[in-house]
Design goal:
single chain, alpha/beta, Archaeosine Trna-guanine Transglycosylase, Chain: A, domain 4, Transcription Regulator spoIIAA, Rossmann fold, seven-stranded mixed β-sheet, five-stranded mixed β-sheet, about 30% strand, globular
């Protein structure tokens, strides 16, 4: 394959040589290699200002991040061969980590496959393509996935907003075999079924696996409130770990049907109560009803999706956590999570401290959690580290 060149400005290669994988449009020598000469999804040979090859990139010429490094070896273009190799490398890590085939198999840039996410539910794969390069190579990807994993079904869940920036249409379709509406998985010894066709993202959130496992010592024999519960990842596991009663709150009736489905699957239905409605309104109603809980879990959707949302998002996190704290007993546990990449962990910690002091309570930070190792962080790309989970103890101010 003969590829065009993408030439960088002088010294613009320093960040890439230091380990980063992204090229910004203002780093490109547009005289030598005009960005309008590339189409989304094209591959190119990235060159330093002096012409030395730095690797192969996938082009997104209309975006601020106009190229992403696929390989530092110019002989390794994105094709079935490279996909098979990278999938095998990713698989070797997950098989080392987990004794059952339920995990995120590919996490984009961190697995050197930018624009690709693959979640594995045994022999069902749910795939998200967020780049034009991956979309263009979808047939090769299907062949590679079939060769490496021999699945019975592959679902393309390409309905996220990330595709808009690449000029890609949104769609959901079965790409291979047969994919049922609900697929089985097991996490921390608890059985679940995830709605891969109609659910959020890929149908399940493997990223909090380790944080949910840490619930066990805090919830046994306790009354638990799970906010933004989705299909019960936190709440059903809390019940399985011995909670006496679990309230799951979510605005989606479909999600709460999933909670009931998964509670029943584990013989826990009698300990679960589902509350449908806006979480903030539900918190007010629970406070008015003088409800108290031993453990409250807040795992909301990203309140800060873009940097310009930072101020309003921080206010939403404070409002949520403060209202959650009002429902905690005298010696209560708050698990406060965030999937907002733009909210640093220290800022979430400060929000919790401020909220506790506003309520005249003392707070102890007991545990810090991040995303599981099937969501590896690329050290040069802060955006790949997005999950925060802080477990805190709230005590009276005396």
């Amino acid at each position: 394959m003969s590829l065009p060149s993408l030439r960088l400005k002088a010294n613009a290669d320093r960040r890439l040589r230091a380990g980063h994988l992204w090229v910004y449009s203002n780093e490109v020598d547009v005289t030598a290699s005009p960005l309008n000469g590339f189409a989304p999804g094209d591959q190119a040979i990235l060159e330093a200002a002096g012409g030395k090859p730095l690797g192969i990139v996938a082009m997104s010429p209309n975006n601020l991040i106009c190229a992403r490094l696929l390989s530092r070896d110019v002989s390794h273009v994105l094709d079935k061969s490279l996909l098979v190799h990278r999938l095998n490398v990713a698989l070797s890590l997950r098989e080392r980590l987990f004794d059952q085939p339920f995990y995120r198999l590919v996490f984009g840039d961190s697995d050197l496959l930018p624009g690709l996410v693959v979640d594995r539910f045994a022999d069902i794969l749910v795939v998200q393509l967020a780049s034009a390069a991956m979309e263009r190579n979808r047939d090769a990807l299907i062949e590679a996935l079939v060769q490496v994993l021999k699945p019975s079904g592959i679902l393309f869940k390409n309905d996220s907003a990330a595709r808009d920036a690449e000029g890609l249409e949104r769609y959901v379709s079965t790409a291979f075999g047969v994919v049922p509406e609900w697929v089985a998985l097991e996490e921390n010894g608890v059985k679940f079924e995830a709605p891969v066709l109609q659910g959020q993202k890929t149908g399940w959130f493997y990223d909090h696996r380790m944080n949910r496992a840490r619930l066990a010592p805090y919830v046994k024999g306790k009354r638990v409130l799970d906010l933004f519960s989705y299909i019960g990842g936190w709440g059903v596991q809390a019940a399985a770990f011995g909670a006496s009663e679990v309230f799951c709150v979510d605005a989606s009736a479909f999600a709460l049907d999933g909670v009931e489905r998964n509670a029943t699957l584990n013989g826990l239905a009698e300990r679960m109560t589902c509350v449908e409605g806006d979480v903030f309104e539900a918190l007010k109603e629970l406070k008015s009803a003088e409800e108290r809980f031993d453990v409250v879990i807040t795992d909301p959707p990203a309140f800060i999706k873009r940097k310009k949302d930072l101020k309003n998002g921080e206010a939403a996190y404070r409002r949520l956590n403060e209202q959650a704290m009002r429902l905690l007993g005298k010696d209560g546990i708050l698990v406060s999570a965030s999937c907002s990449m733009h909210l640093p962990e220290d800022d979430l910690q400060n929000i919790l401290l401020t909220s506790a002091r506003h309520l005249d309570r003392n707070i102890q930070l007991l545990e810090r959690g991040g995303q599981g190792p099937d969501h590896p962080v690329h050290p040069a790309i802060a955006e790949t580290r997005y999950i925060k989970s802080l477990t805190c103890r709230l005590l009276p101010n005396s």
